[in-house]
Write a structure and sequence with these properties.
The protein contains five helices and six strands; from the N terminus they run βαβαββαβαβα. By secondary structure, the chain is an alpha/beta fold. Helix 1 crosses helix 5 and helix 2 crosses helix 3.
Length: 187
């Protein structure tokens, strides 16, 4: 059975980003694709120091946070969906710090994630989603991971915003889940 890892890159485990990823998950599950969740948490993480100790190991030398468990989780999946809240037109800073180390250790040294499907989802209050998605998609592209296409940007406005329920965003995330499932099941 094919499996997709849903990475919640928010410091809040069960808020908007989780909700958006659940929309994608329902479509994946409906198509027979298994899902696994990974929350980056809200603990401290250190940035990559370019110490090159990961070379040839595909492991970060620092083993006291979520980076190495996330590398293992990605290795065990056929596809990855990374969800992030948008802060100042960018992904969550802690998520970017984690991903810098994960993809440096996993992709630059052995292209560990090559061929796995990738997709990103941004949740926001008003705007900034395009630049956040572009930042996340670059991890996939530089790692040889095909990015799952969609009919529009994978953005979801917070139901708590003054905009109300985002029906278009929900529909778009459902389509993303169907597209990813279809691509995985054809592999």
């Amino acid at each position: 059975m094919k499996k997709v890892l849903l990475i919640n890159g928010s410091s809040h485990e069960k808020r908007d980003t989780h909700e958006a990823l659940e929309i994608v998950e329902k479509e994946l599950n409906a198509a027979g694709v298994e899902t696994e969740w990974f929350w980056i948490g809200n603990g401290p993480v250190r940035g990559c120091m370019d110490c090159e100790m990961c070379e040839g190991k595909a492991r970060c030398v620092f083993d006291d946070d979520v980076v190495n468990p996330l590398i293992d989780a990605i290795c065990g999946a056929d596809g990855v969906v990374i969800g992030t809240p948008v802060y100042f037109c960018a992904p969550n800073g802690a998520l970017m710090t984690v991903l810098n180390r994960v993809f440096y250790a996993g992709s630059e040294h052995g292209r560990l994630f090559e061929g796995k499907l990738g997709a990103s989802v941004a949740t926001m209050w008003r705007s900034g989603g395009n630049s956040a998605l572009a930042a996340l998609d670059k991890y996939f592209m530089i790692s040889g991971m095909p990015v799952v296409p969609n009919k529009y940007w994978n953005m979801y406005f917070s139901p708590r915003s003054d905009l109300g329920e985002d029906g278009f965003g929900k529909e778009n995330l459902q389509n993303l889940g169907r597209n990813m499932a279809e691509m995985l099941l054809k592999k």
